[in-house]
Amino acid sequence: MKLFIKNSVIFIFILITYFLINCTINFFNIQNQLLPLTKTSILIVGDSHTQKSLDPNLFDNASNISQYAEPYLLTFWKLKKIFETFTPDTIIIGFSPHNISEFNDLKFSNSKWANKMFERSYTIINFNEISNEITVNKKLLYKKIWKRTALYPKKNHIDYIGKYSNINDSNLSDLKSVIDRHYFINNKQTNTSATSINYLNSIIKLCDSKKITIILLASPVHKDYFAKIPKEILEKYNSLFYNYGNKYLTINFLSNDYTDSLFLDYNHLNKFGSEKFTLKIKDKLNNRTY
Question: Which CATH class is domain 33-287?
Protein backbone atom coordinates (compact mmCIF):
# COMPACT_ATOMS: atom_id res chain seq x y z
CA MET A 1 0.00 0.00 0.00
CA LYS A 2 2.80 2.39 0.93
CA LEU A 3 4.59 1.58 -2.32
CA PHE A 4 1.39 2.30 -4.28
CA ILE A 5 0.95 5.66 -2.57
CA LYS A 6 4.59 6.52 -3.13
CA ASN A 7 4.40 5.65 -6.82
CA SER A 8 1.14 7.57 -7.17
CA VAL A 9 2.68 10.69 -5.60
CA ILE A 10 5.70 10.41 -7.89
CA PHE A 11 3.47 9.98 -10.93
CA ILE A 12 1.31 12.97 -9.96
CA PHE A 13 4.43 15.07 -9.34
CA ILE A 14 5.85 14.16 -12.76
CA LEU A 15 2.49 14.88 -14.43
CA ILE A 16 2.15 18.28 -12.74
CA THR A 17 5.74 19.13 -13.65
CA TYR A 18 5.02 18.15 -17.25
CA PHE A 19 1.96 20.40 -17.36
CA LEU A 20 3.83 23.32 -15.76
CA ILE A 21 6.70 23.04 -18.23
CA ASN A 22 4.25 23.06 -21.15
CA CYS A 23 2.39 26.04 -19.71
CA THR A 24 5.63 27.94 -19.23
CA ILE A 25 6.73 27.25 -22.81
CA ASN A 26 3.33 28.11 -24.28
CA PHE A 27 2.84 31.31 -22.32
CA PHE A 28 6.33 32.38 -23.36
CA ASN A 29 5.42 31.68 -26.99
CA ILE A 30 2.16 33.60 -26.61
CA GLN A 31 4.04 36.64 -25.34
CA ASN A 32 6.76 36.51 -27.97
CA GLN A 33 5.17 35.18 -31.13
CA LEU A 34 5.40 37.60 -34.05
CA LEU A 35 2.16 38.59 -35.74
CA PRO A 36 1.81 36.60 -39.02
CA LEU A 37 0.57 39.61 -40.94
CA THR A 38 2.19 41.74 -43.61
CA LYS A 39 1.94 45.48 -43.03
CA THR A 40 -0.49 46.94 -45.54
CA SER A 41 -2.19 50.29 -46.05
CA ILE A 42 -5.70 48.75 -46.18
CA LEU A 43 -6.94 46.24 -43.61
CA ILE A 44 -10.23 44.42 -44.23
CA VAL A 45 -12.00 43.05 -41.14
CA GLY A 46 -15.29 41.34 -40.47
CA ASP A 47 -16.91 37.96 -40.82
CA SER A 48 -17.48 35.69 -43.83
CA HIS A 49 -19.25 38.47 -45.74
CA THR A 50 -16.05 40.49 -46.13
CA GLN A 51 -13.93 37.33 -46.14
CA LYS A 52 -15.61 36.23 -49.37
CA SER A 53 -16.55 39.56 -50.96
CA LEU A 54 -13.21 41.42 -51.02
CA ASP A 55 -10.17 39.89 -52.69
CA PRO A 56 -7.12 41.74 -51.28
CA ASN A 57 -5.02 40.66 -54.26
CA LEU A 58 -7.05 43.00 -56.47
CA PHE A 59 -6.20 46.02 -54.32
CA ASP A 60 -2.85 47.78 -54.53
CA ASN A 61 -1.88 47.11 -50.92
CA ALA A 62 -4.42 45.31 -48.74
CA SER A 63 -4.88 42.40 -46.34
CA ASN A 64 -8.17 40.66 -45.62
CA ILE A 65 -8.10 39.15 -42.13
CA SER A 66 -11.83 38.43 -41.84
CA GLN A 67 -13.01 35.14 -40.33
CA TYR A 68 -16.21 33.15 -40.51
CA ALA A 69 -18.84 34.20 -37.93
CA GLU A 70 -16.56 36.78 -36.29
CA PRO A 71 -18.47 39.11 -33.91
CA TYR A 72 -17.42 42.72 -33.36
CA LEU A 73 -16.16 41.88 -29.89
CA LEU A 74 -13.50 39.64 -31.39
CA THR A 75 -12.71 42.16 -34.15
CA PHE A 76 -12.13 44.84 -31.51
CA TRP A 77 -9.63 42.76 -29.53
CA LYS A 78 -7.97 41.57 -32.71
CA LEU A 79 -7.38 45.15 -33.86
CA LYS A 80 -6.07 46.20 -30.45
CA LYS A 81 -3.43 43.49 -30.73
CA ILE A 82 -2.58 44.28 -34.35
CA PHE A 83 -2.18 47.99 -33.65
CA GLU A 84 0.62 47.15 -31.23
CA THR A 85 2.61 46.09 -34.31
CA PHE A 86 1.47 48.43 -37.08
CA THR A 87 -1.25 50.91 -38.00
CA PRO A 88 -2.88 50.76 -41.45
CA ASP A 89 -4.04 53.87 -43.27
CA THR A 90 -7.56 52.51 -43.88
CA ILE A 91 -9.85 49.99 -42.22
CA ILE A 92 -12.74 48.46 -44.16
CA ILE A 93 -15.25 47.08 -41.64
CA GLY A 94 -17.99 44.69 -42.70
CA PHE A 95 -21.32 46.12 -41.54
CA SER A 96 -24.53 44.27 -42.37
CA PRO A 97 -27.85 43.74 -40.53
CA HIS A 98 -26.86 40.31 -39.21
CA ASN A 99 -23.83 41.90 -37.50
CA ILE A 100 -26.14 43.67 -35.03
CA SER A 101 -28.50 40.73 -34.52
CA GLU A 102 -28.76 39.31 -31.03
CA PHE A 103 -27.59 35.89 -32.20
CA ASN A 104 -24.04 37.26 -31.96
CA ASP A 105 -24.41 37.37 -28.17
CA LEU A 106 -24.50 33.56 -28.13
CA LYS A 107 -21.12 33.10 -29.73
CA PHE A 108 -19.24 32.78 -26.44
CA SER A 109 -21.85 30.71 -24.60
CA ASN A 110 -23.46 28.33 -27.10
CA SER A 111 -21.08 25.41 -27.58
CA LYS A 112 -21.92 25.36 -31.30
CA TRP A 113 -20.14 28.71 -31.66
CA ALA A 114 -18.06 29.10 -28.50
CA ASN A 115 -15.54 26.34 -29.11
CA LYS A 116 -14.36 27.99 -32.33
CA MET A 117 -14.49 31.52 -30.85
CA PHE A 118 -12.37 30.47 -27.85
CA GLU A 119 -9.92 28.70 -30.13
CA ARG A 120 -9.33 31.99 -31.93
CA SER A 121 -9.48 34.40 -29.04
CA TYR A 122 -8.06 32.83 -25.88
CA THR A 123 -4.81 34.81 -26.22
CA ILE A 124 -6.32 38.27 -26.80
CA ILE A 125 -9.68 38.67 -25.06
CA ASN A 126 -10.27 39.60 -21.43
CA PHE A 127 -13.48 37.72 -20.82
CA ASN A 128 -13.91 39.20 -17.34
CA GLU A 129 -14.43 42.54 -19.04
CA ILE A 130 -17.48 41.30 -20.95
CA SER A 131 -19.00 38.93 -18.39
CA ASN A 132 -21.59 41.54 -17.41
CA GLU A 133 -22.62 42.07 -21.03
CA ILE A 134 -22.92 38.56 -22.42
CA THR A 135 -22.83 35.03 -21.07
CA VAL A 136 -19.46 33.31 -21.35
CA ASN A 137 -19.16 29.53 -21.21
CA LYS A 138 -16.21 29.60 -18.84
CA LYS A 139 -16.06 25.83 -18.48
CA LEU A 140 -15.53 25.50 -22.21
CA LEU A 141 -13.11 28.43 -22.19
CA TYR A 142 -10.89 26.96 -19.47
CA LYS A 143 -11.00 23.59 -21.19
CA LYS A 144 -9.78 25.21 -24.41
CA ILE A 145 -6.99 27.10 -22.61
CA TRP A 146 -5.94 23.89 -20.86
CA LYS A 147 -5.75 21.97 -24.13
CA ARG A 148 -3.82 24.76 -25.83
CA THR A 149 -1.28 25.41 -23.08
CA ALA A 150 -0.85 22.42 -20.77
CA LEU A 151 -0.95 19.27 -22.90
CA TYR A 152 1.96 19.89 -25.24
CA PRO A 153 4.29 22.69 -26.42
CA LYS A 154 2.61 24.69 -29.18
CA LYS A 155 4.50 27.15 -31.33
CA ASN A 156 1.57 28.94 -32.99
CA HIS A 157 -1.03 30.55 -30.73
CA ILE A 158 -2.35 33.16 -33.16
CA ASP A 159 -5.54 31.83 -34.70
CA TYR A 160 -7.37 35.13 -35.11
CA ILE A 161 -5.82 36.26 -38.40
CA GLY A 162 -8.15 35.20 -41.19
CA LYS A 163 -7.73 35.41 -44.95
CA TYR A 164 -9.72 35.79 -48.15
CA SER A 165 -11.30 32.54 -49.26
CA ASN A 166 -13.69 31.76 -52.11
CA ILE A 167 -14.57 29.34 -54.93
CA ASN A 168 -16.26 29.43 -58.33
CA ASP A 169 -19.55 27.85 -57.32
CA SER A 170 -23.20 28.76 -56.79
CA ASN A 171 -25.72 26.92 -54.65
CA LEU A 172 -28.85 28.85 -53.73
CA SER A 173 -30.55 26.34 -51.48
CA ASP A 174 -30.10 27.52 -47.89
CA LEU A 175 -32.33 30.60 -47.53
CA LYS A 176 -34.44 29.47 -44.55
CA SER A 177 -31.49 28.07 -42.63
CA VAL A 178 -29.37 31.20 -43.01
CA ILE A 179 -32.26 33.53 -42.13
CA ASP A 180 -33.07 31.39 -39.09
CA ARG A 181 -29.42 31.39 -38.03
CA HIS A 182 -29.05 35.16 -38.32
CA TYR A 183 -32.39 36.43 -37.07
CA PHE A 184 -34.09 33.78 -34.95
CA ILE A 185 -33.28 32.05 -31.66
CA ASN A 186 -35.46 29.06 -30.75
CA ASN A 187 -37.91 30.09 -33.49
CA LYS A 188 -38.27 33.57 -31.96
CA GLN A 189 -37.11 36.63 -33.87
CA THR A 190 -34.03 38.24 -32.36
CA ASN A 191 -33.68 41.82 -31.22
CA THR A 192 -30.68 43.97 -32.05
CA SER A 193 -27.61 43.37 -29.91
CA ALA A 194 -26.52 46.28 -27.72
CA THR A 195 -23.20 44.51 -27.18
CA SER A 196 -22.52 44.24 -30.92
CA ILE A 197 -23.37 47.89 -31.48
CA ASN A 198 -21.24 48.97 -28.52
CA TYR A 199 -18.23 47.03 -29.80
CA LEU A 200 -18.68 48.39 -33.30
CA ASN A 201 -18.52 51.84 -31.72
CA SER A 202 -15.43 50.75 -29.78
CA ILE A 203 -13.77 49.64 -33.04
CA ILE A 204 -14.57 53.00 -34.60
CA LYS A 205 -13.24 54.92 -31.58
CA LEU A 206 -10.08 52.82 -31.56
CA CYS A 207 -9.48 53.54 -35.25
CA ASP A 208 -10.26 57.23 -34.71
CA SER A 209 -7.64 57.37 -31.97
CA LYS A 210 -5.07 56.04 -34.47
CA LYS A 211 -6.25 58.49 -37.19
CA ILE A 212 -7.22 55.60 -39.45
CA THR A 213 -9.68 56.19 -42.28
CA ILE A 214 -12.82 54.17 -41.53
CA ILE A 215 -15.03 52.62 -44.20
CA LEU A 216 -18.21 50.77 -43.24
CA LEU A 217 -19.12 48.30 -45.96
CA ALA A 218 -22.27 46.28 -46.60
CA SER A 219 -21.42 43.46 -49.00
CA PRO A 220 -24.05 42.23 -51.48
CA VAL A 221 -26.63 39.66 -50.43
CA HIS A 222 -29.11 37.89 -52.66
CA LYS A 223 -32.41 39.74 -53.20
CA ASP A 224 -34.36 36.87 -51.60
CA TYR A 225 -32.20 37.10 -48.47
CA PHE A 226 -32.58 40.89 -48.37
CA ALA A 227 -36.38 40.53 -48.53
CA LYS A 228 -36.35 38.25 -45.45
CA ILE A 229 -34.36 40.54 -43.13
CA PRO A 230 -36.71 41.39 -40.22
CA LYS A 231 -38.12 44.89 -40.52
CA GLU A 232 -37.13 45.95 -37.00
CA ILE A 233 -33.49 44.96 -37.45
CA LEU A 234 -33.28 46.52 -40.91
CA GLU A 235 -34.74 49.80 -39.60
CA LYS A 236 -32.19 49.93 -36.76
CA TYR A 237 -29.43 49.05 -39.18
CA ASN A 238 -30.44 51.78 -41.64
CA SER A 239 -30.57 54.30 -38.80
CA LEU A 240 -27.06 53.36 -37.66
CA PHE A 241 -25.78 53.40 -41.24
CA TYR A 242 -27.20 56.89 -41.75
CA ASN A 243 -25.66 58.18 -38.52
CA TYR A 244 -22.25 56.68 -39.26
CA GLY A 245 -22.44 58.13 -42.76
CA ASN A 246 -22.49 61.64 -41.31
CA LYS A 247 -18.90 61.21 -40.17
CA TYR A 248 -17.40 58.16 -41.86
CA LEU A 249 -17.24 56.65 -45.32
CA THR A 250 -20.12 54.22 -45.88
CA ILE A 251 -20.79 51.92 -48.83
CA ASN A 252 -24.01 49.91 -48.98
CA PHE A 253 -24.49 47.15 -51.56
CA LEU A 254 -26.97 45.03 -49.59
CA SER A 255 -29.61 45.65 -52.22
CA ASN A 256 -28.08 45.06 -55.64
CA ASP A 257 -28.69 43.81 -59.16
CA TYR A 258 -26.18 40.95 -59.05
CA THR A 259 -27.34 37.81 -60.86
CA ASP A 260 -27.67 34.40 -59.18
CA SER A 261 -24.48 33.21 -60.87
CA LEU A 262 -22.44 35.69 -58.81
CA PHE A 263 -23.57 34.29 -55.45
CA LEU A 264 -21.98 31.38 -53.61
CA ASP A 265 -25.15 31.12 -51.51
CA TYR A 266 -27.87 33.49 -50.40
CA ASN A 267 -25.62 35.75 -48.32
CA HIS A 268 -22.15 35.37 -49.87
CA LEU A 269 -20.66 36.21 -53.24
CA ASN A 270 -18.71 33.52 -55.05
CA LYS A 271 -15.31 34.12 -56.64
CA PHE A 272 -16.81 35.64 -59.80
CA GLY A 273 -19.00 37.96 -57.74
CA SER A 274 -16.13 38.80 -55.43
CA GLU A 275 -13.93 39.87 -58.34
CA LYS A 276 -16.66 42.14 -59.72
CA PHE A 277 -17.42 43.62 -56.31
CA THR A 278 -13.78 44.11 -55.30
CA LEU A 279 -13.01 46.00 -58.50
CA LYS A 280 -16.08 48.18 -57.94
CA ILE A 281 -14.99 49.01 -54.39
CA LYS A 282 -11.43 49.63 -55.53
CA ASP A 283 -12.75 52.06 -58.16
CA LYS A 284 -14.86 53.85 -55.55
CA LEU A 285 -11.89 54.21 -53.23
CA ASN A 286 -9.66 55.49 -56.02
CA ASN A 287 -12.23 57.97 -57.27
CA ARG A 288 -13.92 58.81 -53.96
CA THR A 289 -17.36 58.42 -55.55
CA TYR A 290 -19.10 57.08 -52.46
Answer: alpha beta
